[in-house]
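Project channel, design review

CF: Before we commit to the Rhizobium mayense constructs, I'd like one complete example in the thread so the newer folks can see what an input/output pair looks like. Taking AAA family ATPase.
RD: sounds good, go ahead.
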Amino acid sequence: MSDRSLLEARLIESFAPPPLRLFGKEPSIAPDRRMALLWLDVVGFTRITTHFLARGPAGIENLANLLELHFAGLIDMIVAHGGEPLMFAGDGLLAGWPCAGSTPHEALLRAAACAQQILAASRGALPSGEPIELHAVLAFGQCHTAEIGTGSLRLHVTVGNGLADLQEASATRAKGQLLVSAAARSILGDAATVRSAGRDAIVLTSLRGAPDPTPLAIPPLTSEARERLAGLVPLPVALRLDGRLLDWTAELRRISVVFVALPRLDHASPDILSRLESIVAAIAPEVLEQDGFIQQLRVDERGANLVIVFGIPPVAHADDPVRAVRCAVDMRDALRAIGQPSSIGVATGTAFCGLIGNDVFRAWTTYSEAVNLAARLQGLQQGTIQCDEATVRGAQDAISFVPIGHSQVRGLDLNVPVWTPRRQDRAELDELMHGRERELKRILSALEDAAQSGNSRFVIVEAESGMGKSRLLAELHHRLATERSTTLGGIADRIERHVPYRGWRGVLTQLLGLDAKQPESQRRAAALNALSPELAPSAALLNAVLQLDFPETAELEAMSAPQRTEARLDLLVSLLRRAACGGSLLVTIDDAQWLDDESWTLATKAVRAVRGLCLVMAMQPMEEDARIETLSDGGALRLKLEGLSDEEQDGLALTRLGAERIAPDLANLLHARARGHPFFCLELARALHDEGLIDVVDGTCRIAQHLADDRLPLPDSIHAAVARRIDRLDLESQVTLKVASAAGLRFPTALVAAVHPTANAEQAVVGRHLAMHHRAGMLQPDHIDELDGYSFCHGIMRDVAYELMLYGQRKQLHKAIADWYEQNSALDMSRFYALLAHHLEAAGEPVRAVHYLRLEAERVFGLGFVRQSLSIGLHGAALLGSEVPADGAGLQKAIGQEMEQIAALLGDRQPADLIDLPQLQDEHVASLVPLLLSIAPYAYQSQQPELFALLGARCLRLTLAHGQAVFTPDVYAMYSVVHAAMTGDRRTGAAWSDLSLQLQPRVKGASFARCAFINVWFHNHWVGTLEDGIARAKAGAEAGLASGEIVYGCFNLTTVVVLLAAAGRPIDEVISTGTAHLARNGGRVRNSAFTLLLELQSARALAGKTRAFDQLSDATMDEETEFATMLQSRFSNQVAGYYTAKLRLAALGGDWRSALSWAEQARVLLPFFAGQPSEVVLVHYHGAAALALAAFGSPEDAQALRAEGWDCADQMRNWEALNEAWLSPKADILEGLLEAGAGQIAAAQRLLRAAAERAAETGHLEDRAFALECLARVQQTAGEIPSALPEALAAYRAWGAEGKRERLACEFGAA
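CF: and here is what came back for AAA family ATPase:
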């Protein structure tokens, strides 16, 4: 190794404390050792440093020489006595004597002897002639020196219970003497003579039996060990690793110091190192982002502290005070996120920066009043950030501060002014707002009114882009920052305008105190912490807003989509109420013209329900919108921003021109061009300044003398002004800005670098370009989906950069951006479906765009937003050329056209003839049809039957015209429902459904589950046997659950039970099957589980196992509680099912009038369950109740009841031809009751007996028992002995309806 290499090696090693080097050399030596500890620091060092700094460069040099000699002398003496220097801490040095190879007694003797020699030795003198005096403390305990950190950021730290012993002994100061801890005194025993130095403090006066000094030997490290420890070389030295330059490392620099105190750290805790590791991992990104340097993480006699310095080479910046404060705020948040409290002081000033120590052990350090002041400021108030005046002066243009007052700073004899920063940087507040004072006052007045009256206020700020809406909102937040009002802000987004609650995302993020820079897991934990214990179980409802993937509770999983929507709204309103509690709440939403429907719904509900809320929406002018009108009905304040006055324009322009006044000719020119447009005015002023078109003389800005005002090359529009500004960038930088514009208003830096079209656009190059655009006022730093990035300062800037590109260039970039998102596997793709669809649409790839629109529609539907999922899907259809009318008349016309084309394409063919259609080849159709199939259920559930019909018909027409594919069975299945509903032709509808089943592959999967359900739920009971339907539903359930088609798997589970009941199977079989299927559903599909539970409890009621015959409640469930929420939902099918179930129980229970009431409620909802098994139940028992009441009672409305029942009888008889085995007994029962009411007893008895016999033939136990009951009633009414009663009772018992049997026996007085 050459002399120079050897020197460099020794220099690298010297930055690692000896314990790390010894352990690196001899790994068998345990790093965790008991040792004697010696602490040495300089008395009055703050005063000494200030004295030297006041003498300028010469004083710095003298201080450097003094410190070098001081610490080098201490280290030499320590090493000569066998001690190991462990760490520097300001003006202090900690050393240790391990017990390895000796006893604790011997280690303490060696340390004490060393301390005595150091205190007795003559040391350097101060310029005043005074000697440097020391404090010294001797302690004992476990001590561990370790290397921590990540990547290139490595730190060494010393921890252990020995430091706690040292800290306790250091509570007393004894200048020039050796304080001894209680633990050390106990071990030294008679070898030490001591005296008291105050309460709980002892000083060593003499020492006996100290062994002869044995110097510490530190052999050179291997190259591998040295490379491992090279990360400990401090940043200011790493680039100057040359021993010849060491004398030049001492500098006088202006720095900003961030001093972080870390309480609640137990030095002796077994997990102390892991906690320190987590602290470094948390704060390192924040420090590196601001180009700071972690000088030291130390655990000394005062506790654990971090010292971060800004302004040191090679990363000094003109705005280091700004960086220091931002870093302090971000670090505090990062530490809070891991549960670590902190107190932070920030100070700025001139400091000595340089090396201390020698080749045994050295460090890079700083000494100045600013360092000491930062250390003292952190102690003023726990958990806060305290800044000195110099820092505030250097950062106030970028950061807002709140003055706290003057504080007496311990140790400095100063009463200094102190400030604390607000959390957010100044938003667009680099200049005073000019104009808009009138509008601002009106908004503030509305807020004050909300606060005083408790009423909410709604304010709309309307103006074209660039007129100052965003600037007005920023000024509003700025002025209220120190007030009692809580202020929250959000912004809507054009690209994500269909994403639910996108405009409220920022509001909720601020409300819960979340940091977008943190990983999702930390943000999730922070959100849970911010929610009260009462609200935390509902956290998963916020996934729709924050996309934090909170786990679902069983209660939430059981909710229907409408119920979830209402619960989410209630939760969001509750959070807003909490924020407004005790004062007023200002919520602003910018770019509100892009708000989605759910955001408008929340705004409407919040304005009505949150006392003290002032909601301000800034938007571009919109056409008359019912949503705005709804909010305006409550007394909204509508403000339309007009152009600035000439005086206001002059004031605004001067902020860019660098002058105090503006010459009249130049002012007139600006007035004529800008026409009161604020953003245009600023851009014109910037162009004048940047292009040298003006002179400033004696504070007055005027047109440059070599130019005439009529020849001044100024742009005529805002877009031209911005384009000209972009043109002044170098070519590759322009490309970078254009690439960014294609990405959107906000974009990650990594994305722009990845898709940049030029070969040399590496991330570092792109980063420099974007940083330059930031400095030029075009971009501002941002954080997007846990990635660093930027956002455009104004939408106009983004639009102009984008419009400068050719269409071909745009398409190329949008495709590359979409590819980047698809390939970035670290991202949760579901968050970017809308973004991907946007970029692929702009890239001219509608098929790929529709794929993501379909996924986004499914995602949004899963969150309970049916209307928005439908809007997203219909947008996708329009991309593929399939427009859908929005009005009822248009839908009717479109349906008619589709049906005409279907008829023409079919010709004479029947559904069965389509089994061998050619394969589909058209890519657009192959994308469009699955999209329409996926959104058709959304139309059905949003109660838009005409839209559902159009989508079903269009899918069939496209299939007939272009051929079949794997999804074609679903097309036929959906159209089967449409055809049956529109034409009433149930046989042909069933034929389409049968075709869907015939096309299923041999291995049944998700498609079979869907098609089987449609077949048995809508068709089979009309044209097949119920037994076939039960078997098919069972197969569909297994296929669905096995293939992951959970929804239709559960639908089929429910259908099995519904059909068992419809077939009149034994009640015990219905109960056992229903119980098993309800368990398999497991609450995964709530509406399906609802119907299952309804059938199960109905069967239990019939069996006499509920609290009353006409009630569904039993010991396991409460009817009102269990079914109330579903009855309030939009699931009309399930609501109708409940009404028909209650109708059936009332009719079977003989409560005819109640049965008619339930029937009336069900009939209102008939459009939502027509053709389903429950329609047969409705007609059967509605007719039976009306006819029985007319025949067996004496109602005044008997004639009307007979007419009502007659209609039902006719309906059932018309259906009879479709499925005679199932429907004939029901038709005979109704006709028999009709004859009984007409006094035709013989005919009635014949029909009812026939009904019972035909029901017995098919095994329909319910119809047989009910027919015999009706026959007994006819006999009784005719004055005959009800000979059919015993048969009826036996039939009910055979069915398992013991509750019904007992009720009937009691009524007739039978046993």
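RD: helpful, thanks. Residues 905 and 960 are 6 Å apart (CA to CA).
CF: Confidence is low (pLDDT under 50) at residues 25-30, 426-430.
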